[in-house]
Amino acid sequence: MPHEPVWAAQSPSPVRRKTLTSQVADRIRADLLTGKFPPGSQLGETELAESLGVSRGPVRESLARLVHEGLLLSRPHRGVFVPLLSEADIIDIYYAREALEAAAFRRVITSAKPPGLLSALDETVDELACATRVGDWSRVADLDVRFHSLVIEAAGSPRLHRMFDTVIAETRLCLNLQANADPARLDLLDEHRELARLIAGDDVHAALAALTQHFAEATVTVRNRVRAVRR
């Protein structure tokens, strides 16, 4: 008689509900990534607790979690602040992104494309075109992130995805510097359209070269915005 698989004899683990701290952290994280808290601003436990209708304990734990994620900066004896990213930070963020996304591009292009990926990329580019036409730069930033996230997801690597989640959150802080401002890169739409075309093909070298150029342009743009904010 065949042995029953070990997993079949075990009771499934109960589904864990999100803790209050996790819910508070999700809320603060979302507000950070949508630019509600401007770079350099201080986040106070008391004010956040009152606005969220919770005690200070979950807020304190949430802030510590977001500091660990790199979305907030803790200054001893002063408090917790939204980072005011330096030019060196910008360069490092895009350096890390290029390393991660080059790996994802390589795998996606040299493997069978996941169903729906190419159409999802094209749809995102079409939405990017619409947002660009009406000057909705916050929406443009969201769609920019969505495009690159689709490629990371398509690579099918949970570890790569986890690393990307951290660096894309910091990227979103960078992009918030451009939200509701005049665009410095009118060729952003064309770059994403070209990336989508290359992902659909099989020329890895051309795709990685285009990705490198894309991030080089992005780095210059965001650095210029950082300089403008610091004036």
TrEMBL record:
<keyword id="KW-0805">Transcription regulation</keyword>
<dbReference type="InterPro" id="IPR011711">
    <property type="entry name" value="GntR_C"/>
</dbReference>
<keyword id="KW-0804">Transcription</keyword>
<dbReference type="InterPro" id="IPR036388">
    <property type="entry name" value="WH-like_DNA-bd_sf"/>
</dbReference>
<feature type="domain" description="HTH gntR-type">
    <location>
        <begin position="18"/>
        <end position="85"/>
    </location>
</feature>
<dbReference type="InterPro" id="IPR008920">
    <property type="entry name" value="TF_FadR/GntR_C"/>
</dbReference>
<dbReference type="InterPro" id="IPR036390">
    <property type="entry name" value="WH_DNA-bd_sf"/>
</dbReference>
<dbReference type="Pfam" id="PF07729">
    <property type="entry name" value="FCD"/>
</dbReference>
<keyword id="KW-0238">DNA-binding</keyword>
<dbReference type="Pfam" id="PF00392">
    <property type="entry name" value="GntR"/>
</dbReference>
<dbReference type="InterPro" id="IPR000524">
    <property type="entry name" value="Tscrpt_reg_HTH_GntR"/>
</dbReference>
<protein>
    <submittedName>
        <fullName>GntR family transcriptional regulator</fullName>
    </submittedName>
</protein>
